[in-house]
Specification:
Layout: E1 22-24, E2 30-33, H1 35-40
Antiparallel strand pairs: 1-2
C-alpha cells in the first residue's frame, strides 16, 4: 500500500475559466489529468 503525502496547506486561486480535473482507478491511481491540471502543477 502506498503512503499518502501530507497536504501543503496552500490554497491556489485560478480564474473562472480554468477547469482542473483528473480520473483515477479505485485504488487511487491517477489515470488522466487535463491540461489545466498539468499547468497548475508547475
Amino acid at each position: 500500500m502506498s503512503k499518502s503525502l501530507p497536504a501543503t496547506g496552500k490554497e491556489l486561486k485560478y480564474s473562472d475559466d480554468v477547469s482542473i480535473f483528473s480520473t483515477t482507478i479505485k485504488k487511487g491511481v491517477i489515470t488522466y489529468i487535463n491540461d489545466d491540471f498539468l499547468s497548475a502543477r508547475r
